[in-house]
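Anyone able to model this chain together with 5-O-phosphono-beta-D-ribofuranosylamine?
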Amino acid sequence: MVLISGGGSNLAALLEAAADPGYGATVVAVGADRPGCAGLDIARAAGIPTFVERLGDHPDRDTWDAALTHAVAEHAPDLVISAGFLKLVGARFLAEFGGRYLNTHNALLPAFPGIHGPREALAYGVKLAGATLFVVDEGVDTGVIIAQCAVPVLDDDTEESLTERIKVAERVQLVEYTGRLARHPWRVEGRRFVIDG
Ligand code: GRF
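re: yes, here you go
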């Protein structure tokens, strides 16, 4: 199950990988927090069930969180992947899916959490940027790290060029690790994520 808010390039990569039966994972549904995002079209074109749960359609955040939890639970996913889902989920959602709700973030955590990872990495002057796949917890981008990949920051980079370079590596990582988690047992030991095999 994949949650999105935007273009859905990560979703598209997962769908492409999942077309191979040996991959080990399928996308059972795609949810979004806003209608009209391109990722929903990608899902529909692939024949995947979709739903939209807008925060603004609910009286408060807790009600939205409960509705999102219910919508996701209907598809009984083993893993829930936030691929550019720009909302923080709440306690209800984490009670149901905590430990198997994963997010991909476009920075090398714990540096540059939040929604402007590439911009802040560029402004800070780091020479390596990248992406982090992690298990979502109550914090903002603070969960246990599953995998990280690095890309160089070039002297002539703009926020756009760096963001795009990160996205390319991020997609490969997300596809690789989602498949590995579907095919192999894994566990969390303290802050360490361990995959057996
Ligand atoms: C990813 O780079 C993710 O790290 C960031 O938003 C991007 C999602 O892109 N939070 P897409 O919607 O999968 O194309």
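The mean pLDDT is 97.
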